[in-house]
Structures are given as C-alpha cells and as structure tokens.
Write a structure and sequence with these properties.
The structure holds two protein chains of two kinds. Helices cover 46% and strands 19% of the residues of chain A. By secondary structure, chain A is an alpha/beta fold. Classes of the chains: A alpha/beta, B alpha+beta.
Chain lengths: 199, 716
Amino acid sequence: MNTTISIIIIDDLLPDDDPVIALLKRDYHEVKLIKSPQEGIEYITSHLSYRHIVILDYKFAQNEPDGAFVLEKIREKSKIIPVILWTANGNMITELESFINNKAFAMVPKAPYEELLSKIKEAENFINNSVEGALEEWIKLEGQESLERPFLIAADGKEYTLAQLLSEIRMQSNFGKKIEKDLLMLTIDLLIRKKENLK
Amino acid sequence: MPEQNKKKENKDSLYWRFDLSTFRLLGRELITDRITALFELVKNSYDANARNIHVTFLNVNPVGKDTKIIIKDDGIGMDITDLKDKWMVIGTASKRKNRLSPAPFNRKMVGKKGVGRFAVDKLGSKLLLQTKLAGSNELTSLETDWNKYDTLSKQYDLFEATQENERKFFTEIPNKYWKEPYLKTSQGTTLEITSIRDPWSKDDIDRAYKELAKLVSPLSKQQHEFNIFITSNDYPEYNETQVRNKAIKFATKTIDIKFDIEKKTQESLKFDDENLTIIKTPIKSFGPVKFKLYYFDQKAKDTFKKEYKGGNIDGIKIYRDGLIATPFAEYESQDIKKRDILGIDKRRYSGFFDKVSSSDLIGLLEITDAENSEIKDSTNRQDFQDNAEYRELKQFIIDQIVELEKYLKYHRKQETEKTKSNLKSAHGDLKAFTSLVRKIKKKAPEKLKKELGALEKQTKKVSIDINRGIKAYNELEKEKIQQENIFLSLMSLQDYALEIAHVVRTSLSRTIRLAEFFKKEFPNPEFNDLFATYAKDIYNEMTRLDSAVDFMLSYAQSNTDFKEINIKSLIEDLFNESYKKIFEQNKIKTIVEIEKPLIIVHNQKFFEDIIENLISNSIKALSGKKNKIIKCTGTFDDSKFILLFSDNGIGIPKEDRNRVFNIYFTRTAEQGGAGIGLYIVKTRIESMKGTVEVIDNELNPTGATFKIILPFADKN
C-alpha cells in the first residue's frame, strides 16, 4: 500500500461503494469521494501540502460549475497536482482546450475502469519521480516537524523552510523551478564526484 | 547558430531553444482561421499608428504561382533594430509594457501577445516584409519561408530518435534580410505573402470585409483616421473599396447604458410595469461598462437588411478600448453555426415568443483595459477567460436583454388589447349607425327608402362580418397560446434529451464497472461482501435505466393535445379514485383541499405527471412511518394558483432542498427511488411557466412540503 498518496474523487453521482473506490482503497491509504465541485476545490486548495491524485467528473448537476472550472481553480493553486478527468460523455465536452491548457493529466472514460486505474498508476509514478515527490519521501523519513525547520538560505539571504520550498515547487514559481533544477544538478554533481551513492 | 547567440554564449550557460511544435501552436492553432489571421495583421498596423491600410488580393481564385496577398500600411515602420528585437522576437513584451502606441496617436495597443505575426503562416507560406521608418532613407526587407520550417519538422519529428547534435531548432533557421536606399518621405510596412494556401472566393473576401468592418466600434471616436481599403483583381467590385462601419439605423428601440466613475455607479435596465427605465447600481465586479443596445422588430429588420445590403443583425459584440474583442473575426454565413459566446441564444426556449435572440439585436458593449482588467483575453482570442468576473458580465448582458423582453412583451400585449378594443368599438359604432339609418328610413320619402334599405342591409352585413372578425381574432389568440405551449414543451424536450442521455450513460458506465469487477475479481473471498452488494446494484441500475426509458416513452406516447382541464377535479379524482387503493394498502390518510375550481388549457397528461410523481415520492418517503398523511391544498392569489403538497415522511434535509429536483438525485433508493420523479415534476411545472420549491414542512415532526406556483391568465 502506498502510504502517502491520497486519491480525491470529485463526482456527484458516484456511489460510495463503487468498484473503483473499493479497488483504490486496496492500494492507497485514503480515497476520498467529494460530491460537490465547490467542496472539492475547497478541500484540495486547503490540503496543498499533501500528495493527491484528483479524479474529476466533467458534468455536475445544473447550477454547479463543470469540470473545466474546477480544474482551473485547482491550477490557480497548484500547477502539478495530477488531475485525471473521467467522464461518461466524452463527446459532449466543449472545453477540451481548457483541459489541455490547464494541463489535465489524462482524460478517460467512466467505463471500463481499467484505463482509469492505469492512468492513476502513471500519475503515481509522476508524483514519485518528481523532485517534489523525493522531498516528500525525505520528509517522511525525517518526520513532519522537519517541514517547518529552516532548510535553505537563498542567494538573497532569504530563509526557506521545507514547507515553503514544497509550496514554491508545487506552484512552479520562478524560484520553485530554479530550486528544482538546482537540486537535480546538486544530486548529479554529488554522484559524479562520488560523494553519494545510489542505493 | 545565429551570430548574435554565438556572441552571448559562454561555456557555463545554457540557452533555450524551441522547436517547431511551439511555432505551430502559436501560428496555426492560436490563430484559428484565415479571417482571424488577416484581422491580426491589420491590428498590427493599427498598433503601428497606420492611417491607411491597403489589403490587396492578387490572382487569388484559383491559386497559382502569381497569387499574392499584400498588406500595406503607412504606419511608423521599423528599422533593423526593431526587426531584430521586436518582429523576430516571439511574444514581444514591448506591447505589454507600452500600452499606448507612439504619440501623437496614443492608440491603445490591441495586439498584446506578440503572436500576431504568426498569422502570416495561416495565409501563405512565404513572406516578404518591407519596412521603412519615417525620415530614414533606407528600406529594410526580410524574407521568411515557412516551408523551411515544415521541412525541418518532417526531418526531425519530435517523437523520432534523432542525432541530437545534428538537430536544428526553429530558432536556427536563417531568415535573409537586406537594406536598400529608398525615398525619404515614405514610411510604413508592407507584407507581401505568397505561396498562398487556399483560394479566396468572392464570398471569402466579403467575409473579410464584414469582419474588418467590425474592427473599430462605431461608438468610439478615433482621434486619428484609420481606413482599410480592399482591392482584388479577381473581383472588380473590390477596387480600393473602403471598409466602412455603417451607422446603426432603423432600430425599433435603442438603449444607452452608461456608468459614472466618480459616483461609482453602473446603469442598468429595469422594466417598471410600463416603461424601460435606467437604474443605478454599484459598479460590478467586472468593472464599469458602456452598453448600447439596438432592438429590431421584423419591420425594422426588413428595412435594415434592405438598406445595408447583406448587413447582419448579429447580436452583441464586445469592444475593448474601441477595438473588437469578441466575437473575434468569426464569420459564419449561417446564423445557427455561429458560436454563441455570450450565451444569449442558449437560454431555454430562446427565439420563441417573448424571447429575443441574437438576430433581433445589435449590441455594442464597451470595456477598457484599465477599467475592466479582470476581463482577460483567452489564449485562442475568440473569447475571454472564464472567470467569476466574466461570468458576471455575461449575466449582466442577459439581465439587460431580459428587461427588454419584459418591456416588449408588455407592449405587444397593449397593442393586442388596443386592436381588440378598436374592433369592439367599431362594432358598436356600426350598430348605432345601422339604427340611425333605420330611423331615417322610417321618416324618409318613399323614393329614398329603397336606397336607405340597401344601406341598412349593407351595414348589417358589415356588422356581422366585424363580429365574426372579433370571434376569429379571439380564436386565433387562443390557438396561439396553445401553439406556444406545445413549442415550449418541445423546447424543454431538447433539454430532457440531453439530461437523459447523460444519466443513461452514467448508469451504463456504472453497470459496466460493476460487471467488470465481477469479470476480473470473481472469485475472491476478500471481496465476497462486495460481490453481493454489486449484484444488487446491477439490478438497481437496470431498474433505473428502465424508468428512464419509461420516462422517454411517456413523451412519445403522450399526445400533445391541449384542452381545458379542471385542476380541482383532476387532483380530487387522482386522490379519491386512481390512488384510493394504493393509499388504503399503505395506510395513508389523505387530505385534499382545493379552494375552488380552476380551468386551465394544457396537456392533461403533463399535469397528471406532476401530481402522480409527488404522490409516488411521498409514498416512498412515508415507508416505515406511522400515522402516514399526504396533504394537498390549493389556494389562489391574484392570477396564481398555489399548491402545497405535504407528507409527514422522512423529510428533506435543508442542504438537499435544491438538489432533490436534479435528475438521478434520490434519497429513497431503498424504496426503489430512481431520482427521476421530482425531476419530471420540476420540468413539467417549468414547461407551464410555474415554479416549485421545497419549503419548511407543514406537518410535524418530520416531513416534506413542496410549494408549486402556477401562473394562469384570468379570462375575466
């Protein structure tokens, strides 16, 4: 079981005992079903420090925002949370462009579920292989209290905690992108100079 | 590698290079069609302070070696530094930094993203750009051949393994430029595009004309002239033809909505039972706007179309700083294909009866970059970014149209009443005249009597004809109402079809997932409980699908006859006869109190559907309860019939009050609720122009009360 990645499903018609939920519960420590798009946005934006994969329905009840709007709101807060769009009515989607522009991780049909599960695996790999994922793993080993400890002093003298660094990387700010690149380069440098070994 | 990059390069630095996919994204995908492309290039000329732009199409139908499109302006032009640092730089920031074009024009820059130049590629693959600054005696020319980039793309497909060190990038293709002496007095930029991709028919150039005519708002006063001329040697009617944005005339009603920035107020339309008035509201989230709305009735439309040959009454346009923002260079000859960006025609039942549609309106909404900064261009330049402010702006536009509709409806009714009353009084006058003729005839000499007798006969005949006319008029009115009702039902059917398709798909998807689970996981003792649950779920989903199909069939089977129905006796019959046994079996006490008879003209099946679904919903909600009651009371308030339908069942939590009417929402799944009943109730009531809501329960301690309001026209 993967202990740190949560699956958030935003879908107003999905029953709590759907096979997809049952199967995901076997592999992930938390599978949360949120039935209102607004609540979904609120939940994700207030839990940015956790690792999520979001499964998003497209068409909600009348008067509710659609999947395109939810994705846009998520992207305002995080550029890298994988959001997988799943829909029963792929051919009725008019905001395809918006999904592409807002970097939807994938778009899959609601049935069969095989494709969804395989995209979730891809998203999991995406998270685990990212710098952000590696940092998360490291924090897990060090303990949650390490999040708020000063971790790095930038060239301008500004101090960053791990939590702040994670947030910058998640938002893909200029600083976030730079630190991501620098960390990778540092790792390569350490490996080349044989200061560290890969286990 | 280009010279300038070599100079800057040093061994511990890396440089971005980008390949063809980026170029394609910018050029061919952001600029969606040829007209948009032309539009972008003309906008560039506008930003360069051009007064006159000449667009020339040479030998464009059919396309051959000598086909050219030339766009020539007399703007400020560029020197080699401008070419290098602006034209050749994608996404030039200069337009974002400098919001105004150079003095003395100080035009608001309309091209902001620095991608307009890629529009050339949409028109043709070769470009010769010639440009000259005022006062300089040097003409600079630049040649670009997009074909080279295409070749590059074929050689180095992104997904194919290539020898990376040999790979060339978009930025490494050389573009030849040269300088030559030229007349000092001239200035401007000429784009000569060859290897034209598609032929331009006369219809295509007509389209370009119409769209270019919309570029500048007819309301904005351009301080400095801005003229566009079109020439084509294929079509003699285009010979230095000036593109003109004609003044909007002949509208039936013109409305002017403004704002006051000092008092921070936005004007808004309000129908006050008789007239359209302007009210002042606080400035909205999208910022202050000016809105000029022209409404055309059929007669005015005919005059407009006759006067402006081929001119379209084409809905609402949004101008930013005087230049068109949306719908942006979008041309469709058939109205039905036009994208309804503002959602005016998407409104339910639009185009029928009291609703006005885009083809009845010309609207010019003016926004500015400074005051309406939250309204942002979308990437494809065809709309604005979907955010809360833009949504509110769209709603604001719809609200104005709704008020106009109320006003038009009122005046149509007044006109009808006036005609009716004129007919009645004509009938009375004629009667008086006949009786006068009769009186005169009695006293008249014999000689005249014969002629007066004929006159009396004639007036009697006319009087009978008028009377028939009045009757026929009343019949026609009644028929019209019936037709409207049928149309409304058909229009709502469209919405039902969409909803039903969605729920059927959702249900099928779930069933497939459940079956897939069995197929892949059975037998597995870990999931034994789930197997049992899912078998039941498959059964329930199938039952749901069955009810959805039944619902669809109810449409096919119900006749569309509209007839007089007595609501009071219909409800009483349903309770006391049709459902009597069911109520007895379920030990439900019923209370039916309808104040007085009400006769409406409608489809009886539709009304029965409402009551039957409410009854069925209540029966499910009462399951397992003691002292079960269903109560139905009908009262009257002016021209409204108010029906309260209550039970003392499990009740509806406050947070679900709005959701219970959504299709497939159910709280009684255990009792076989499919989530369709209350959806039918709501849509049927809406098709009767009524409303339904869940209010606080009137029966204690638990229960649900539905309040239905049906408007009716009082015959008296």
